[in-house]
Write a structure and sequence with these properties.
The structure holds 2 protein chains of 2 kinds. Chain A has 10 helices and no strands. By secondary structure, chain A is mainly alpha-helical. Helices cover about 35% and strands about 25% of the residues of chain B. Chain B has 10 helices and 12 strands. The longest helix of chain B has 16 residues. Chain B is globular, with a radius of gyration of 23 Å. The chains are: A mainly alpha, B alpha/beta. Chains A and B meet through helix 1 and helix 4 of A and helix 3 of B. Bound molecules: adenosine-5'-triphosphate (ATP) and magnesium ion. The site of magnesium ion (MG) has 4 residues of chain B, from helix 1.
């Protein structure tokens, strides 16, 4: 099981190195971080970190897995994988793991660039991992519905927009706040603002971690359910 | 090795791709499915390799029903699909490394299979830079990597030039000689004629005839011979005679004694002609 997940992970890592469409999605949030930083005093560390990380989770965390899954279907490579000892779960986990590791790497760079205190970075990365882990299965679901790589952008558009744009606006009214609560990126956004700045109460951090963990579990279950239902349509 | 009985597949209510086919393939046999576009060849392969569930009937590979017990069947089967589906951005080596890791094989095996299909030099080439024939051979390398006992091939030479096709034919013959059971689909009757021990004619989801190419030809033979004879004036004349009978025997014997016979052909039909005869449908 571990060996096969690792096999998929390695293949995905080798692949993104030559896949411009995907690697740009990892790099773009970082470029924004640099731009935000250049804006001078307009943005402090928590603002730069939270905005960049939000972009990273929304773009790389959802869009990338949707493209990876859609491409396997479009190019019919998934059917070969299914004839190898790999199970669908192993394929999804391998892909998710690659996305997680890559986004974590870029998140780390972003935190350092934003000027977040070094001591806070481990906690921030932990929350980032939880937040992205909840996004990745949702991206994969988009990939299962998109007929090809190109259309992942369109099929997933509502999701990407909501996950990236909504969190900063949840403070403005009650409806947005309620809607925002169901998005993992909202929790990630506010945890980042707090932890990159003044720091947050341990109880609140624990609660948020719990919520994200739960969201991650729900997203995984949802992916399993959708895959099972769509499996016949994928052959 | 393969047992199929009354197999049907309907993609939807009106679209019956297979309407009840039955056949068996023995161990070590080279078996061909000959049929035009849309006959149901790919559908049959997909069912036998567990990628599709049938609508009715039975299909077993090594005793198991592939779509139910794919995990058991997987180690014994290799598949060359109808379209190249390698990871295009990765190199040949990286593609095969993935499957070596998944099967738990030593990377030494990669060189072995690439050597056999003549792609060792292209090992570090990204797949997208390979020619069509090379990609096809790469699919072979991938299919036999884990040393399967049955190889399924879906039109492996369609779209290849004669030289590339011949290379693949020789490779398949070699594998078969080593004991691999081969199930091939094709709409190329020369290919099937050359390679297959037995062939099934598939047309619109039905098997119209099964048998060894030689036996099928004899069965549908018109029992005639065509001879080329030199007349008294030196001109060549073509005649069609019954294959057996005193009249033919005397005529041919006479020409032979007088040294007049230039050529003699038995008039057995080609597989393509038999196909039209039994299905009422043209190949291709
Ligand atoms: N996914 C599908 N949905 C609906 N109908 C399908 C599907 N796949 C195949 N068919 C139909 O089933 C029939 C058999 O198709 P199949 O692909 O098995 O033929 P084939 O013999 O492999 O043809 P070809 O030589 O073109 O590859 C065709 O009429 C085709 O239109
Ligand atoms: Mg076909």
């Amino acid at each position: 099981m571990v060996r096969r997940i690792l096999a998929i992970f390695i293949k995905e890592t080798q692949d993104i190195a030559t896949n411009f469409n995907v690697s740009i999605l990892f790099a773009l949030p970082l470029i924004f971080a640099v731009i935000f930083k250049r804006l001078g005093n307009a943005m402090d560390a928590p603002a730069i970190a939270s905005t960049s990380v939000l972009l990273l989770a929304g773009m790389a965390g959802i869009y990338v897995p949707s493209m990876l899954v859609a491409e396997e279907r479009e190019k019919r490579t998934l059917q070969v994988l299914m004839l190898s000892p790999a199970t669908p779960a192993e394929v999804f986990i391998g892909k998710g793991l690659m996305t997680l590791v890559m986004t974590l790497l870029f998140a780390l760079i972003t935190y350092i660039l934003a000027g977040v205190p070094a001591a806070r970075i481990p906690v921030l990365l932990l929350f980032f991992a939880l937040g992205v882990a909840a996004c990745i299965p949702l991206g994969m679901i988009v990939g299962l519905f998109a007929p090809n790589v190109l259309s992942t952008g369109l099929v997933g558009m509502p999701l990407y927009l909501a996950f990236i744009l909504l969190p900063p606006f949840t403070v403005f009214n009650e409806t947005l706040k309620q809607v925002g609560r169901v998005l993992p990126t909202t929790h990630l956004y506010y945890v980042t603002i707090a932890e990159a700045g003044p720091g947050a109460r341990a109880s609140w951090l624990l609660e948020t971690a719990g919520i994200l963990l739960l969201m991650c579990a729900v997203a995984c279950l949802l992916l399993t359910w959708v895959y099972r239902r769509r499996a016949t349509a994928l052959g | 090795m393969i047992r199929v009985a009354g197999l049907t597949k309907a993609y939807n209510k009106e679209k019956w791709a297979l309407r009840g086919i039955s056949f068996e393939v023995q161990e070590g046999e080279f078996f061909g499915f000959l049929g035009p576009n849309g006959a149901g060849k790919t559908t049959a392969i997909k069912i036998l390799t567990g990628q599709l569930a049938p609508t009715g009937g039975e299909a077993r590979v090594m005793g198991w029903e592939p779509w139910k017990e794919l995990a058991r069947v997987k180690p014994f089967i290799g598949v060359v699909p109808d379209q190249a589906n390698l990871y295009e951005r990765l190199t040949l080596q990286q593609n095969l490394e993935l499957y070596c890791r998944l099967w738990g094989l030593d990377f030494k095996r990669i060189d072995e299979v690439l050597e056999r299909v003549g792609l060792l030099k292209e090992k570090r080439t990204p797949v997208k830079a390979l020619s069509r024939g090379m990609k096809q051979r790469a699919l072979f390398a991938r299919a036999v990597l884990h040393r399967p006992r049955i190889l399924f091939l879906d039109e492996p030479t369609s779209g290849l030039d004669p030289v590339s096709a011949d290379r693949i034919h020789r490779f398949l013959e070699e594998l078969n000689r080593e004991g691999m059971t081969i199930f091939l689909t094709s709409h190329n009757m020369q290919e099937v004629d050359r390679l297959c021990h037995r062939v099934a004619f598939l047309s619109q989801g039905i098997i119209a005839a099964v048998g060894a190419p030689g036996a099928l030809k004899l069965e549908h033979s018109t029992q005639q011979v065509r001879v080329l004879v030199e007349g008294d004036d030196g001109a060549l004349e073509e005649q069609v005679l019954a294959l057996n009978g005193t009249e033919s025997a005397e005529k041919i014997g006479d020409w032979m004694r007088r040294g007049r016979l230039r050529a003699i052909h038995s008039q057995e039909p080609s597989l393509a002609e038999i196909f039209i005869k039994v299905t009422g449908q043209e190949l291709v």
